[in-house]
Write a structure and sequence with these properties.
Distance between the termini: 23 Å
Oligomer: single chain
Helix content: 40-55%
CATH architecture of the largest domain: 3-Layer(aba) Sandwich
Largest sheet: 5 strands, mixed
Strand order of the largest sheet: 2-1-3-11-4
Number of strands: 12
Strand content: 15-25%
Radius of gyration: 18 Å
Shape: globular
CATH superfamily of the largest domain: Periplasmic binding protein-like II
Length: 290
């Protein structure tokens, strides 16, 4: 059994599916998984070798690529589409004073927010959450009035609506071809352990397909309830959103390139010196998978 240490901003549905269905073990992998809400901790862990693989938004990789000491690259785009929306407190839908909170002002949701503020006429001001927090905690901060708006995944949209919050931007509708589920490693690790990287990509690819096909009334909610300790009611309410958050699974290689070009163009709109997609994405793993 080969051990692989993996980190992500949150424990997501494909990882849960792969663990519950024993896909990692069947592929000969022992995966030590860590949920790390701070993208800078993900980056630092890649540099030091603490993590061999991370799950993170493609734009974070473009941002990390500015650092010459970081040799990370995307090796799999498993889906396209962003299952995330910007929600605000009641009565603040058109207020320039509202505090719109993100975990990272420089990349990912922070970059989307900057684009909305600067180019799409969104009113408000961006503030950073310190320390970064999980989506569930962001929802709690909104309910308590400690922030005025934030991005929430589709899995929490029912609870957000029931809390009286207002959705002001649906990124899924706005960015349907944006890279969704992306996996990242370093050239250093891949050069020594290419088979581990390819095997992990294949397992996640399989898990994405299995998750998308789960029965939303039984198998899917039962999986979430077991993995997270949620009640059956909470799991049943959140599972459809988890599927929605995955976007369109199993893009072709050309679709993966196109999605990353969209992400690159969005970053280049706000940052100079953004390199070509090939600087951040090596298609060799996806080619090897097929």
């Amino acid at each position: 059994m080969t051990r692989l240490t993996v980190a992500a901003l949150d424990r997501d549905l494909p990882v849960v599916a792969a663990q519950a269905l024993h896909l990692f073990e069947q592929a000969g992998l022992e995966v030590d998984f860590h949920a790390v809400p701070d993208p800078y901790e993900l980056s630092a862990g890649l540099k030091t070798g603490r993590w061999q693989v991370v799950h993170v938004d493609a734009d974070h990789v473009f941002h990390w690529g500015d650092d010459p000491d970081c040799d990370c690259f995307i090796f799999l785009v498993g889906s396209t589409g962003v299952g995330t929306s910007l929600w605000v407190r009641p009565g603040l839908a058109d207020s320039s004073a509202r505090r719109l909170a993100v975990n990272d002002l420089e990349a990912g949701e922070g970059l989307w927010l900057q684009d909305l503020l600067l180019h799409e006429g969104l009113l408000g001001r961006a503030v950073a959450l310190n320390p970064p927090v999980s989506p569930e905690t962001r929802l709690a901060l909104l309910r308590e009035g400690r922030v005025d708006g934030c991005f929430l995944p589709a899995s929490l949209e029912l609870e957000a609506a029931e809390a009286g919050l207002t959705r002001v931007v649906d990124l899924g509708a706005r960015l349907p071809e944006y890279p969704g589920y992306t996996l990242v490693t370093t050239h250093r690790f891949n050069a020594v352990h290419p088979e581990q990287v390819i095997t992990y990509a294949r397992v996640i690819w399989q898990a994405l397909g299995r998750a998308a096909e789960m029965d939303p009334l039984s198998e899917g909610p039962a999986l979430l309830a077991q993995a997270f300790g949620w009640s059956s009611t909470v799991a049943a309410r959140r599972f459809p959103g988890c599927i929605k958050a995955l976007g369109q699974v199993h893009p072709s290689l050309s679709q993966a390139f196109a999605s990353l070009e969209l992400a690159r163009a969005l970053r280049a709109r706000h940052r100079s010196g953004v390199g070509r997609v090939q600087r951040y994405f090596d298609p060799a793993v996806m080619n090897a998978m097929f």
